[in-house]
Amino acid sequence: MSINKFIVKPNLKIDLSIIKTDDTNGFSSKKDAKKVLKNNIKKMIALQDKLYADDNYSMLLIFQAMDAAGKDGTIKHVMSGLNPQGTQVTSFKQPSAEELNHNYLWRINKALPERGRIGIFNRSYYEEVLVVRVHDLIKNEKIPKELISDNIWNQRFKEINDFEKFLFDNGTIILKFFLHVSKEEQKKRFLERIDKKSKNWKFSDADIKERQFWNEYQKCYQEAISATSKKHAPWFIIPADHKWFMRLAVSEIIVETMDKLPINYPKLSAEQLKDLADCKKQLEDEK
Ligand code: ATP
Ligand code: MG
Known about the structure:
The chain has 287 residues and is of the alpha/beta class. It contains eleven helices and five strands, in the order αβαβααβααβαααβαα. A five-stranded parallel β-sheet has the order 2-3-1-4-5, with helices on both faces. Residues 67, 204, 207 line the site of magnesium ion.
């Protein structure tokens, strides 16, 4: 699969309303897709092992989407089988009082993946130009009033771009996924959550309230993605109406990116090799 199809080219103004949510890129059966996903997961496990041993790069995978688009399921399926020691998942909710006493990247910095690790953000600092913008929450953020200008969103896009460039320059590979679901499919999934007892816990009436702001969210997503898709931190718009395809596409992008990284198992020096040989001999000579 060509992952280029889903990447947002830098400086391109996207229009989400004309980007398909039900594309399956030629895959017609869920069964075939599941096979490829399984194979990708195998490759990812091997690559993660190398990333961990290499211990220089880190990966940051950001998931953003409307409610019920499938962030949780995608994270669960695509990351299944990875070594838990090498991954860190963080879900970002409404900021706490302590978090609001700092700038909006404070809590983010604390959650960034260590070298050799894969960090997964379930929501992220992008909420700062999405929900905060849709509901005008900026006034709750304790930023001095005189510093909030009409240009605040463009200012935040620039801050985010600068932050991501900084991370990239210091060895963090960033991939950003927008799981693009249709309004119709969201309704179907909400109804399923209401109708199926085992899914009731996933439903919240706040989700219905947010659904009323669908168009505002799409507009903010569109602007944020257009302004912040960069070569060093690209956005991918993943068709999310078919969960099996969404998971496959995400796995494909992660594997292809990791495969290109110059990561290697550390090479031992002649001296270290000699030490190993000595240790081996010592073990073998044990009585
Ligand atoms: P689920 O699939 O379980 O519903 P979720 O990511 O929607 O997952 P919730 O606890 O339902 O989790 O919602 C978290 C809420 O926190 C979201 O509505 C999100 O917009 C909000 N949020 C996240 N970051 C911020 C932020 N910086 N400022 C304000 N609200 C935020
Ligand atoms: Mg929710």
